[in-house]
Design goal:
Layout: H1 2-11, E1 13-19, H2 23-32, E2 37-44, E3 47-53, H3 57-67, E4 70-77, H4 79-88, H5 90-106, E5 112-116, H6 123-132, H7 146-156, E6 160-168, E7 171-178, E8 190-194, E9 198-207, E10 209-210, E11 217-218, E12 223-226, E13 228-229, E14 255-256, E15 260-276, E16 278-296, E17 299-304, E18 314-321, E19 333-349, H8 352-370, E20 376-385, E21 393-405, E22 407-411
Parallel strand pairs: 5-7
Antiparallel strand pairs: 1-3, 1-4, 2-3, 6-7, 8-12, 8-22, 9-11, 9-15, 10-12, 13-14, 15-21, 16-17, 16-19, 18-19, 20-21
Keywords: Membrane, Transmembrane, Transmembrane helix
InterPro entries: YqfD
Transmembrane segments: 91-113
Length: 429
């Protein structure tokens, strides 16, 4: 289709209007003689309109005499007619050619430089290194050596591991990838403590001393993995027949570490939801209209949109745009864009089963807001709350049991009372 339109534009075509008693005969005879007509339309009973190439206009005269129809040209389009118009306006043609050449010349320079991918390295520093390598605004694109700029960026900026320079039109994009610096691991003494109450399901210790085991009930703030590793009790065996006791060794000191590990526990949540048996209110219908006004010194001129809002009830959302100030001049002109959303009153009646289902969904949604990321629900239960007096709503309470990680780091200073919270190691028999 594109090639067909392009060919018609190059050779030129005209739109003809055919009038006569039998314009269909004119069209059929032209098609029989190999003359192609397209976009055929019939605006009247004895009138037809069609497009035909410029080279086929002369043969159509003979067909018009045979069918006793007449035709006249209503529109001319294509390169030959455009060339004829430009030939009559040489100054316009010269200006157009000059404009195209100027545009092509200006597009051969770099006018915009964009830097992407940097977070730690300042943009000014990247542009400074690129400028020293030959990348500046206004530089001709044929003088720009992109590989040299990339090498200069990697050589002069140690924080950059990779750099790429791309040219698209008059815009140059410098894309950099910064080196990933590993964060220093915190080695200060710390415990893993519980952030919420629950029953321990799993304890995985990476470093430290396990202070809780599977099946234990813990409360917030309780130590789960201690950063104090107590010394092991080693009893030296006594030699038979010895009457003198060797000198007692000095007691060994505990080891302080930064505790790390995973502690998963069963945690319970409660949520509440309710739903009305008969609900009334307002809701959006989905219909809206937009009005664009220009406000000049308190006077509004409607540029687009309806004069009168077609809705009986609606809500309005308005945004105001002002022209930027120029020096000390503030123009008293505002562009006001108002969006009107239609709303309607509704009344919805539910039976008790539908209300119970909706209240249960709302109760579970309330629990879902309390669950941390990564928590897995293992059990849920919905109970309807029954009251003595009948109500126009249904109340539901949700009980959810989840399996989640409850440990968090808590730094401490060696010698504090937190050391007393660590259970003593079992004595060896």
């Amino acid at each position: 289709m594109f090639l067909f339109r392009l060919m018609n534009f190059l050779v030129g075509y005209v739109t003809i209007t055919i009038r006569g008693e039998a314009p269909e005969k004119f069209i059929n005879m032209a098609a029989a003689r190999g003359i192609f007509l397209w976009d055929i339309a019939r605006p009247g009973e004895q009138t037809m309109r069609a497009n035909v190439r410029l080279s086929a206009v002369r043969p159509l005269r003979h067909i018009a005499r045979r069918t006793r129809c007449g035709f006249h040209i209503t529109r001319r389009a294509g390169l030959p007619f455009l060339w004829m118009r430009l030939a009559r306006r040489k100054a316009l043609a010269f200006g157009a050619v000059l404009f195209v050449l100027g545009l092509y010349f200006l597009s051969s320079f770099v006018w915009t430089i964009e830097v992407t991918g940097n977070s730690r390295v300042p943009r000014k520093e990247i542009l400074s290194v690129a400028s020293a390598a030959g990348l500046n605004r206004g530089v001709p694109k044929w003088r720009l050596d992109c590989p040299a700029v990339e090498r200069a960026l990697k050589a002069n900026l140690p924080a950059i591991s990779w750099a790429g320079v791309y040219v698209k039109g008059t815009k140059v994009t410098i894309e950099v990838v910064e080196k990933t610096i590993p964060e220093k691991k915190n080695q200060s003494p710390a415990h893993i403590v519980a952030i919420k109450a629950g029953v321990i399901k799993e304890v995985l210790v990476f470093s430290g001393h396990a202070a809780a085991k599977e099946g234990d009930t813990v409360v917030p703030g309780q130590i789960l993995i201690s950063g104090i590793i107590p010394p092991s009790e080693e009893q030296k065996p006594e030699q038979p027949g010895s009457e003198t006791h060797s000198e007692q060794p000095a007691p060994r000191q505990p080891t302080y570490v930064h505790a790390a590990g995973i502690v998963r526990a069963r945690v319970w949540y409660e949520g509440y939801g309710e739903a009305l048996l008969a609900e009334t209110g307002k809701r959006f219908t989905g219909h809206r209209v937009t009005r664009v006004c220009m406000k000049i010194k308190g006077r509004e001129i409607i540029l687009a949109g309806p004069q009168k809002i077609p809705f009986l009830h609606y809500q309005t959302e308005t945004s105001v745009k002002k022209p930027p100030p120029w020096r000390n001049l503030h123009l008293p002109v505002e562009l006001v864009i108002s969006k009107y959303y239609e709303v309607e009153n509704y009344r919805l009646v539910r039976n008790r089963a539908e209300a119970r289902r909706l209240a249960g969904e709302r109760a579970l949604h309330a629990v879902q807001k309390q669950l941390p990321q990564g928590a897995r629900i293992v059990h849920k239960q919905l109970d309807e709350l029954i009251v003595k007096e009948p109500e126009s709503l249904v109340r539901v309470k949700a009980f959810v049991e989840s399996l989640e990680e409850i440990g968090t780091e808590q730094p401490f200073t060696p010698g504090e009372e937190s050391q007393n919270q660590v259970p003593a190691p079992p004595s060896q028999p």
